[in-house]
Amino acid sequence: MRRRGRKDYYYRKAKREGFRSRAAYKLIEIAERFRLFKGKESVVDLGAAPGGWLQVARVLTRGKVVGVDIQEIEPIEGVEIVKGDIRREETLEKVREIVERVDVVMCDASPNLSGVWSYDHARSIELSEHALEFAKSMLREGGSFVCKVFQGDMFNTFVEKVRSHFTHVHIFTPKASRKESAEVYVIAKGFYHPKVLPGEEYDVRVDDVSERGEGVARLDDFVVFIKGAKKGERVRCRITKVRQRYAVAKLIPDKWECPRSQ
Ligand SMILES: C[S@@+](CC[C@H](N)C(=O)[O-])C[C@H]1O[C@@H](n2cnc3c(N)ncnc32)[C@H](O)[C@@H]1O
Q1: What would the DSSP string read from start to end of 63-86?
Q2: In this predicted model, what pLDDT tens digit does every residue of 211-236 receive, in sequence order?
């Protein structure tokens, strides 16, 4: 029996043009549209088997190209291969033995699909979170991150985490993605180390008010906007959103404040 979509346009094109997977055309489109490579970047590709993305990366950059997968990847000239699970620290250690810092981290890893939407989504997010942690530990300042994610209710939270480490974040569906697929690609450029992180709490002095009426506090040169905080107050706040030059925070009410006497 012929498997659904097995011999579609991109499948045949990949066979004809010598690519190991139809997925190669997704990276070609992403790389062109988002100018991912200028020619010297070093790249790590997580979830890389059978190696279509590695073949594309090998052509687009003269830098180091490293592919990681739990499955065997047939050798590709000029590409280093690491066999292992991207969720395991020992796998990432092996990558770090080959290359210390990279310019691009890509992840096209997919869990084995069960057909149960919420389960597949959760496992895809788990892989994406590991890829993001890896990118944070390996990327050079200004580097790029490309990651496949299956859409679902945890998608926005994941994208917000990406936004707190990259100046430009795009959500993109390449033409070669199958129509019925829930996959999208998060393309993030301009990696930076944020001054604060979502969830962190700070005691700050509100020393200004923004045009939108939020309290403005400063952590060194870094600006934090706090809704509901008034100029002159000392408040405790929790960071909810982080960007390169500023963060947004929520006021934490003082639990121990005595009720006012009548
Ligand atoms: C869609 S394929 C990648 C295709 C690849 N981009 C290409 O162009 O050939 C997804 C890959 O993710 C890998 N994968 C899934 N979970 C993984 C994990 N935890 N660690 C490493 N690889 C994983 C699978 O083995 C599979 O080879």
Answers
A1: S-EEEEESS-----TTEEEEES-T
A2: 999 999 999 889 999 999 999 999 99
How many CB atoms are located within 10 Å of the residue 116 CB? 10
9-191: what fold? Rossmann fold (3.40.50)
Residue of 148, 175, 230, 231 marked catalytic? 148
Residue 69 CA to residue 48 CA, distance in Å, equals: 6
What kind of fold does domain 201-251 have according to CATH? OB fold (Dihydrolipoamide Acetyltransferase, E2P) (2.40.50)
pLDDT band at 257 (very low <50, low <70, confident <90, very high): low
pLDDT digits (tens, 9 = 90+) for 114-168: 888 889 999 999 999 999 999 999 999 999 999 999 999 999 999 999 999 999 9
Answer whether 81 contacts ligand 1 (Cβ < 6 A): no
Tell how far the Cα of 23 is from the centroid of ligand 1, in angstroms. 11
